[in-house]
Specification:
373 residues, single chain, alpha+beta, Jelly Rolls, globular
């Protein structure tokens, strides 16, 4: 993989002080725990605090700046004691913060995340991360999908990663005003589901999880595989980041508005249960009748309610989940095409290959794994 190789400020020949600095860095990080906010700025610090600590921080190994475009980038690489891989951090002026995650920690990591007034778009390819929104409502993020979330400035949540999970994710944190000004102008109309994220009166944590489209997946892969170095890598990151935000906003625009029919709490719980089943059961994919019986709803209520609440039909959602699971098996586990087809409910490899190519516009055999560097 062609990663970002930012220019160092120091010479290529390490001095005695450099070696001491490296040893201190390893000792500090091995005992600090947490994720990049904790490593760079300390427990409970904001994203802006972490970026403000990049220059001169012993944890940063590569740093580059594009003065004309006001871009700043750096890499934090895990030590062998921590695991393998890296965090790639880019600040695009004071509007966007981009975190490219490509790592696997040996042990679970927990970090306190304070409210910072930003909206975060997480484009997940693989991994196992959980947001502790509340004790009763943790959000597990462990499959290819788009998770959009925000929190009030006085609300703190916990974020933790599972041990040995290969985390490949692009997190884009953006000012709500930037989204409105640059992605929703000139009409100013905000998709209904997006309104709560850009509202100035947020008082709690809000989140929305949607399938990762083929276009998003391709853009995320390009960011992880950034082919450029130095300032060109920063400009490339800026361009692909804006592309990803366009895709995310388009997903919100394609969602239906508020349900045209009111549903009881029980019916909503049943609809969410049906969605969870489709996200876990791939072979064979359950029929509408089987799904309705499993969650305790009439078939008509299930079919119409699912489309009304989630903005997608049962069939299309099931297909997305199966194709994304197939993509994970091909990329992460390197399974043979025939075995992957069976795992997602296709009796014949040719039928699976046809469906996969129709969905992703590429053949299963063309899928390549993105490795940590």
């Amino acid at each position: 993989m062609a990663g970002l190789h930012y220019d160092r400020f120091m010479s290529s020949t390490p001095s005695k002080s450099d070696n001491t600095r490296s040893e201190n860095r390893s000792e500090h990080r091995a005992s600090s725990g947490g994720l990049f906010r904790t490593v760079l700025a300390g427990p409970g610090r904001t994203l802006a605090d972490a970026f403000a600590s990049l220059e001169g921080s012993p944890q940063v190994e590569r740093l580059a700046r594009h003065v004309k475009r006001d871009l700043l980038g750096a890499r934090v690489t895990l030590t062998p004691q921590e695991g393998a891989g890296y965090w790639e951090l880019t600040r695009i002026r004071d509007d966007l913060y981009v975190i490219v995650e490509n790592f696997a920690y040996r042990d679970p990591r927990v970090e306190r995340v304070p409210g910072d007034g930003l909206v975060q778009f997480n484009f997940k390819v693989s991994g196992d991360l959980t947001l502790g929104i509340s004790r009763a409502e943790p959000v597990r993020f462990n499959r290819p999908s788009l998770l959009v979330w925000s929190q009030a400035t006085d609300v703190e949540v916990s974020e933790w990663t599972a041990p040995s999970a290969h985390e490949r994710n692009v997190a884009i944190s953006v000012r709500p005003e930037f989204l409105v000004e640059h992605f929703l102008a000139p009409s100013g109309e905000v998709p209904e589901r997006l309104q709560s994220f850009v509202s100035r009166e947020r008082r709690k944590v809000d989140y929305c999880q949607m399938p990762l489209t083929a276009q998003m997946f391709e853009s995320v892969t390009r960011l992880i595989n950034n082919p450029f170095t130095g300032v060109r890598a920063l400009v490339y990151t800026e361009a692909v980041t804006l592309e990803l935000l366009c895709s995310a906003i388009e997903s919100f625009c394609s969602l239906s508005g508020a349900p045209t029919q009111e549903y009881t709490d029980r019916e909503l719980r049943c609809l969410h249960a049906a969605r969870d089943i489709l996200m876990r059961r791939f072979a064979p994919a359950p029929t509408i009748r089987q799904l309705a019986r499993a969650v305790g709803l009439a078939e008509t209520t299930l079919r119409h309610g699912f489309k009304s609440v989630f903005g997608i039909t049962l069939f299309d959602f099931s297909l997305r989940c199966r194709m994304q699971h197939a993509l994970t098996l091909l990329r992460d586990r390197r399974w043979p095409v025939a075995k992957v087809g069976e795992a997602v409910g296709y009796a014949h490899p040719t039928s699976f290959a046809t469906a996969f190519r129709r969905y992703f516009e590429m053949r299963p055999v063309d899928v390549r794994r993105v490795k940590p560097k």
